[in-house]
Write a structure and sequence with these properties.
By secondary structure, this protein is mostly helical. The chain contains 5 helices and 2 strands, in the order ααββααα. Strand 1 and strand 2 form a beta hairpin. Helix 2 packs antiparallel against helix 5, helix 3 packs antiparallel against helix 4 and helix 4 runs antiparallel to helix 5. The protein is elongated, with a radius of gyration of 25 Å. The two termini are about 45 Å apart.
């Protein structure tokens, strides 16, 4: 009697609701919805970074009435590169949203997913280059460099430095989100 129930036990377990595999279409649709949400988050992060850096400026009066010190993002080419790169990546992410919507509707699109992985990787490299180069300049602005004869000017231009540091946070969040997008797309492709 025990042998009959033991032999019937695994068959009962395999046929139960808990061991049924999740359909591939459902998982692919969930991955596509997550892909869409992450693209929106990354687009908002890059847009906020570009706007914050592009509008950062501060003017300090000097002893004389007509002499003023200004700090503007346009003064440093690295910050201009940062704004341009974040703008390009934001436009790319907004333009890739319709393709992500197509992936939600039609989960069998593999070639467009491969194209998005390639373009996402290129945008990741571009965004990382812009964010890391701006980070180097922000670090020099905060701490200075005796070798480059660059004195830390964030003590005087506190508002300007807070804004440029904040814009870096949004850009690095977008870098992490794009890495997650690449991993997510790769998983969706590998499920085929």
């Amino acid at each position: 009697m025990k042998a009959a129930t033991v032999a019937a036990g695994p068959e009962l377990l395999e046929g139960s609701e808990a061991h049924k595999p999740i359909p591939k279409v459902r998982v692919s649709r969930v991955l596509s919805v997550i892909d869409f949400i992450l693209r929106v988050v990354a687009a908002v992060g890059t847009l906020a970074s570009a706007i914050t850096m592009g509008t950062s400026r501060q003017t300090l009066p000097f002893v004389a009435r007509f002499v003023r010190f200004k700090a503007n993002y346009k003064d440093l080419p690295t910050f201009t590169f940062f704004v341009i790169v974040n703008s390009i990546v934001c436009v790319y992410l907004v333009l890739s949203l319709p393709v992500s919507i197509v992936h939600i509707i039609w989960t069998g699109a593999v070639k467009s997913r491969i194209t998005l992985v390639i373009l996402d990787t290129a945008m990741l490299g571009l965004l990382t280059a812009g964010a890391s180069s701006a980070t180097a300049i922000v670090a020099m602005a905060h701490y200075g460099s005796t070798l480059a004869n660059w004195f830390p000017f964030c003590r005087q231009f506190n508002n300007f430095c807070q804004r440029i540091s904040g814009s870096l946070i949004g850009s690095f969040i977008a870098v992490v989100v794009i890495i997650l997008l690449i991993i997510l797309s790769s998983v969706a492709i590998s499920r085929r």
